# Entry
Amino acid sequence: MFSDRNSDIDHETIELLENAQDRIRQKKNVYKHFIVYLFISGFFLFIDFFLAVGQNILIFNYSWSIWVLLIWTFILLYHLFDVFISKKIINNKWILNQKSHLIKLQQEKIKSLKKDIETESKIYADSNSNNSNQLVTIIVAASENNIIGDNNKLIWHLSKDLIRFKNLTKGHHVIMGRKTFESMPKALPNRTNVIITRNKNYVAENIIVVNSLENALKVCKDDPQPFIIGGGEIYKIGLDYANRIELTRVHQSFEGDTAFPEIDEEVWKEVNKIEMFDIENHDYNFSFITYDKFN
# Structure
């Protein structure tokens, strides 16, 4: 430890000596410049005014030697200013202080960024508090052009699809927006109905009210497979949280005011498909398609 301290002192001493030597060199150069200036100025004035060399050369009514001396005087003054003012103020100590200040600012910025990242990580972890084995599932029926409804109502009636929906969601949490809930006569039986709404005073029988999908998933944290059942905006947000999509693809195009987002094949992989064609008492052909999110 003692030797390290001596090493630090030697380093500082060397820096001081080098800085002092630089200052001496700079002052010597100024002194030499001044001597050369005096000698050459005298020589120019002598040959101009006493030997009459170039007396006919006038620039704005002044002799050429006067202009040379004026320009050189300006250069000399700049040299003096640079050595005795600029380099005295902006010396190695000043540069080191500026570097230290900038490093300190960068360290504070990095510290602030780390704090923000930790906070965001904590929020993300809290919003995804459901364990890694939980299968958050979107269940939806959509036409070929991704329409899922019109004026908050279903466009088709497929009893096989309704039976499948009931069998899959029975005993689980079902998450939906307020409008989707209000399109139903009452809360879905044998399921825990979680309603997302900004209305803090919203009340209905047999429901749990939350203000965001994140909070809805917190309510469902003990459910191994909660289902997101609509509507359009909830589906759009839910794609970021879901691990699976249970899609009933109705093989027909419809007009409507609510659509399901396009399924990105770089994010989702089709793992199962059951075609339901020419089913008795069903007006349309459809398929049950299961997508899982790539890990």
In short: The chain has seven helices and twelve strands.
